[in-house]
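Same chain as my last thread, 460 residues:
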Amino acid sequence: MKPCPLVTIYITNHNYGMYLKQSVESVLAQTYQNFELFIIDDGSTDGSREIIETYQGHPNISIIFQKNKGLLFSNNIAMRSAQGKYLMRLDADDFLAPEAIEKMCELLEQDERLGLIFPDYFYTDAQGNVVAREQRHNFRTDVSLYDIPAHGACTMIRLSALRAIGGYNELFTCQDGYQLWIQFIKRYHVNNINEPLFYYRRHETNLTNKEEKILSTRQQINAWFVESNATPCPSTVAILPLRMSQIDGSVWPLYRLPNGKTILEQLTEEVISSEKISHFVICSEDPELLTEARKLSIHSTKIHLMDRPHEYGRLNEPLEKTVFHVLDALQKKAVEPDAVMLLSIEYPFVSKTVLEDAIHTLTIFGSDSLISVRPDSKMYYTHQGHGLMPLLDQEHSTRLERDAVYRREGGIIVCTRENLYKRKKLISGKVGHIHVDQKTAFGVHNPFDLHLFEYLSKQA
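reply #2:
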């Protein structure tokens, strides 16, 4: 009888016939050969079957043809069929470095506490030419906040641990790596190898190009994780500081949308509809804005109105003054939240879903504070006296995780009450993040933004 392999590798394929052979051959060329390989074809219609059938009869390869059922279903098929101690997925458009399996196995064998391990990787173009390298932080020495997950593919998993958490949730259409990650970091050790061991091919059909779908699925996974694990979220008070800001002659908080609602009214409805937010405080030094807010407060006991001292509303005053003013007033009403969420009226597309995702994310990763961001890949320069110099060595082809740049967008800040009183700053301690889509990140700060917003609102 053939002995059980140490590693099960599976390649998932859906219409990637042009890349499939390179993917399979990269597995067969591994320096470590004690593996079994499953090729799972998920209903391809591009001639992939003919390529796969050339491997029929190979002693290390098993072939599965199925109707198009999606990645998560294929992942669970592999998990149930695997005989190895460790399991790793390789996407059909990617390929491995020759020593990938050997190096990942070695570290997993050395530490029984490890649930998964993942390497750095190369980016390639559609033809397989290397164009850049992704280098993560060193998880042994540099990481204490685990809110950036491993890549879904080419992460080697301890199979017993995967089965212990129940495998992959097939309700989700993508983001299998993220779902796995948030479950594993709660129960097992995770680690990485700061060496590129696979090649991630970028082309127009990559899932990573579908940002809206990825972010939406991640929000669903966060909500599912919190609910299914009965994880208590912090009681949260949302605070909206308001100024009488005018843009192109319009008072922005009172700007009326095509549906007849004001910007203030629309944001208020999103906030008070969330069960994760216990109180919503609208504070302003302007009587007209407070009068308009009072009309909204009759519809919900969640809404509190507060007159803000004029000096706190100045542009150069820190927002912490307003927040402490609100918390002191709430304390007199016996309201003492676990967390504070600060919002900005300048972001008209913020939704209940995004607000709740901020609370879920803070809860899951245990950060002290959190901000909404967009990743920024633009080049930035600083003047050094002799001319402009690039910041963070961004011209280098190696993408270092420590040099990744994020912009604060979406206007959401969440901070635990404990951290706020300890450090006296909203954004402090271990600062987590939620990645928001382009629409949520859109802010109205000037007449051009307002005209663009008017156009976008009519398209909705």
